[in-house]
């Protein structure tokens, strides 16, 4: 193990010689006879472990040297002991207030100097070990948080694909609606009605939760879910139960969790209420206006836009321009007007997302071939 480095600063050659002879047996010693030289040597790597600094020097005194050391991010953590002939209590207090760790008065007593140096080097080594340990702990926390987030995202997508496997919609629908929700959230985050809720963290959690919006379709019979034509009134009532089924499934997961999980709270809101309408005529609970959770309001528009521009077994896709006009026409009826305004403002981005995650004809045909109505 290399010996600790001590920088000795004094304008007197005799004092430098005395301190050098006293310390060189146990430590590596650097010597500076001016403040400017001290600053240069203090920043030289490997950095000193301790600085013995004279106060009374011509030009730049020790107080100014200490202030400059502490103003520099490279050298601010190096402990400094003032070594001076100034023995008044106010001088010592001033030095300690500036940030010196100790104060040794001249004439120097070898045993005192060695004891103080040994003590402050031991303290520095302890601080360094603690800082390294804390850094390792922080890195481990970051690593584990990253793993947990990855597991969470994979779990969300795995659950979402349970519904997608039985649904005529493709997996790209999940990716598109996820990005539509993120886009709306980012557009509305500074809006007075939404800024308290739509923080960057919440927007990210919303986007991660969005793929679970139709998880309840797992509970819908195939002959209804996959019916290529219009549903009968009775069949439509069964289809609408997917909102409650999805919310119930997520609520069960919440109950089994050992602590509240934020994304499950949002996912439950989205699954339960993304078919509610601003005017109160939606389902399953007929909520209206601000009674509909913000998360569900964003999802409602994202889901409808994607349904309109996508091919389904029962319809051809509308163009994005037609879908845009249809959504605008529903402002204040099906959708929150401010959410529609955000959609209008980001319509180009919506189109980019739709193009980026577009379904290919081969994907659609393969999906339809894999879906068999069983009853």
UniProtKB/TrEMBL annotation:
<keyword id="KW-0597">Phosphoprotein</keyword>
<dbReference type="InterPro" id="IPR011006">
    <property type="entry name" value="CheY-like_superfamily"/>
</dbReference>
<dbReference type="InterPro" id="IPR003607">
    <property type="entry name" value="HD/PDEase_dom"/>
</dbReference>
<feature type="modified residue" description="4-aspartylphosphate">
    <location>
        <position position="54"/>
    </location>
</feature>
<dbReference type="InterPro" id="IPR052020">
    <property type="entry name" value="Cyclic_di-GMP/3'3'-cGAMP_PDE"/>
</dbReference>
<dbReference type="Pfam" id="PF00072">
    <property type="entry name" value="Response_reg"/>
</dbReference>
<feature type="domain" description="Response regulatory">
    <location>
        <begin position="5"/>
        <end position="121"/>
    </location>
</feature>
<dbReference type="InterPro" id="IPR001789">
    <property type="entry name" value="Sig_transdc_resp-reg_receiver"/>
</dbReference>
<dbReference type="Pfam" id="PF13487">
    <property type="entry name" value="HD_5"/>
</dbReference>
<protein>
    <submittedName>
        <fullName>Two-component system response regulator</fullName>
    </submittedName>
</protein>
<dbReference type="InterPro" id="IPR037522">
    <property type="entry name" value="HD_GYP_dom"/>
</dbReference>
<feature type="domain" description="HD-GYP">
    <location>
        <begin position="148"/>
        <end position="359"/>
    </location>
</feature>
């Amino acid at each position: 193990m290399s010996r600790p480095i001590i920088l000795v600063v004094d304008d007197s050659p005799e004092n430098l010689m005395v301190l050098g002879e006293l310390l060189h047996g146990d430590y590596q010693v650097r010597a500076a006879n001016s403040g400017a030289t001290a600053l240069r040597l203090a920043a030289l790597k490997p950095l000193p472990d301790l600085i013995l600094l004279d106060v009374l020097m011509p030009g730049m005194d020790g107080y100014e040297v200490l202030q400059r050391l502490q103003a520099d991010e490279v050298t601010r953590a190096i402990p400094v002991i003032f070594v001076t002939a100034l023995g008044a209590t106010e001088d010592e207090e001033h030095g300690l207030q500036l940030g010196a760790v100790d104060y040794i008065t001249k004439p120097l007593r070898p045993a005192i100097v060695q004891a103080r140096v040994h003590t402050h080097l031991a303290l520095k080594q302890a601080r360094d070990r603690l800082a390294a340990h804390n850094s390792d702990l922080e890195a481990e926390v970051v690593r584990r948080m990253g793993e947990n987030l990855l597991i969470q995202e994979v779990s969300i997508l795995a659950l979402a694909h349970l519904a997608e496997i039985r649904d005529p919609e493709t997996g790209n629908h999940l990716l598109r609606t996820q990005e539509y929700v993120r886009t709306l959230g980012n557009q509305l985050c500074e809006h007075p009605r939404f800024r308290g809720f739509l923080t960057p963290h919440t927007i990210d959690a919303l986007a991660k939760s969005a793929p679970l919006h139709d998880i309840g379709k797992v509970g819908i019979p195939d002959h209804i879910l996959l019916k290529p034509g219009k549903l009968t009134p009775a069949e439509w009532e069964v289809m609408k139960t997917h909102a409650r089924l999805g919310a119930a499934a997520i609520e069960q997961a919440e109950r089994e969790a050992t602590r509240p999980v934020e994304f499950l709270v949002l996912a439950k809101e989205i699954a339960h209420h993304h078919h509610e309408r601003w005017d109160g005529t939606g389902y399953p609970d007929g909520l209206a206006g601000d009674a509909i959770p913000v998360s569900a309001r964003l999802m409602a528009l994202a889901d409808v836009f994607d349904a309109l521009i996508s091919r389904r077994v029962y319809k051809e896709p509308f163009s994005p321009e037609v879908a845009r006009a249809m959504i605008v026409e529903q402002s204040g009826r099906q959708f929150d007007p401010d959410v529609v305004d955000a959609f209008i403002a980001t319509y180009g981005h919506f189109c980019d997302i739709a193009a980026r995650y577009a379904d290919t004809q081969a994907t659609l045909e393969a999906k339809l071939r894999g879906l068999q109505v069983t009853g």
